[in-house]
């Protein structure tokens, strides 16, 4: 079962590794990220931040889609973290089982639209989010577990 | 019965870690910080007694900065009191996991023991730790 799919540009960091994982009672974290899946240093850093007692899998987006659709992740309380909205878009388009998208944090850059104090999107990313919403996906901003969910 | 958490430290460690907790977890209404000895005339006994008295109807968990420190020692005087729990060695991993797991109905004693065990594992010498990380995990 997928307990949460989250966009967070910091991937597995304090809020994600400890607050969210514990809050969701997730027992498996999937970091779906093309760069990290092929970069040993990035992988090591992510693995070091892994909360105890939780399985951590790092895969690129394509292999993440294949793995989830194959059913091998069904036995887990799976918490998926992606770095960008574009990655989330690809993942959700490829996986029917994902019905919700949590926008946790994206990098601030000049010219981006602000959806919350921590989420900033380009016009292209906004289009992708709108497309997901029209597909019936619940898309909301929520940085930490005790924040209220805010639909976009 | 409400559960209240009090963080108590020498100096501003307690309010500092509470600010970190807010950033990482969010709502911390049930948690208060007790920065002791900021004022040289600080009366520890009086302030500790006040915390204990104010929470006589609550389940109270106090987490202090250091075992053997005067703050912990003062709270230790109340250790036999019912619904009073004292933990020393305040740290963020412990606090974070505790906050995400604690509910009004939870078995607090068991929770404290489990969370304490987990948080000890997060204190690491990273230079050594990375040498142990090479295992690839898959589903």
Describe the secondary-structure layout.
The complex is a heterodimer of chains A (152) and B (139).
Chain A: E1 2-8, H1 14-24, E2 28-32, H2 34-37, H3 40-48, E3 55-59, H4 61-70, E4 78-82, H5 85-94, E5 100-105, E6 113-114, E7 120-121, H6 123-134, E8 138-141, E9 150-151
Parallel strand pairs in A: 1-4, 1-5, 2-3, 2-4, 5-8
Antiparallel strand pairs in A: 6-7, 8-9
Chain B: E1 3-10, H1 13-25, E2 31-36, H2 44-54, E3 59-64, H3 70-76, E4 84-88, H4 92-101, H5 108-121, H6 126-132
Parallel strand pairs in B: 1-2, 1-3, 3-4
Helix pairs in contact in B: 1-4, 2-3, 4-5
Task: Please give a quick description of this structure.
With 152 residues, chain A is α/β, with parallel strands linked by helices. In chain A, 37% of the residues lie in helices and 25% in strands. Chain A has a 7-stranded mixed beta sheet with strand order 3-2-4-1-5-8-9, sandwiched between helices. In chain A, strands 6-7 form a two-stranded antiparallel sheet.
Which terms would index this structure?
heterodimer, A: 152 residues, alpha/beta, seven-stranded mixed β-sheet, two-stranded antiparallel sheet, 37% helix, B: alpha/beta, Rossmann fold, 4 strands
Task: State the major sheet of chain A.
Answer: 7 strands, mixed
| Strand order within the widest beta sheet of chain A | 3-2-4-1-5-8-9
Distance between the termini of chain B: 42 Å
CATH class of chain A: Alpha Beta
Distance between the termini of chain A: 24 Å
- Known CATH architecture of chain B: 3-Layer(aba) Sandwich
Question: Overview of this structure, please?
Answer:
The complex is a heterodimer of chains A (152) and B (139). Chain A is of the alpha/beta class and 152 residues long. Chain A has a single domain (2-146), classed as Phosphotransferase system, sorbose subfamily IIB component (Fructose Permease). Chain A contains 6 helices and 9 strands, in the order E-H-E-H-H-E-H-E-H-E-E-E-H-E-E. Chain A starts with a strand and ends with a strand. With 139 residues, chain B is an alpha/beta fold. Chain B has one domain: Rossmann fold, CATH 3.40.50.510. Chain B is 45% helix and 18% strand. Chain B has a 4-stranded parallel β-sheet with strand order 2-1-3-4, sandwiched between helices. The chains are: A alpha/beta (152), B alpha/beta (139). Chain A binds chain B through residues 14-15, 18-19, 22-23, 28, 44, 47-48, 51-53, 55-57, 67, 72-73, 76, 143-147, and chain B through 23-27, 93, 96-97, 100-101, 118, 121-122, 124, 126, 129-130, 133, 137-139.
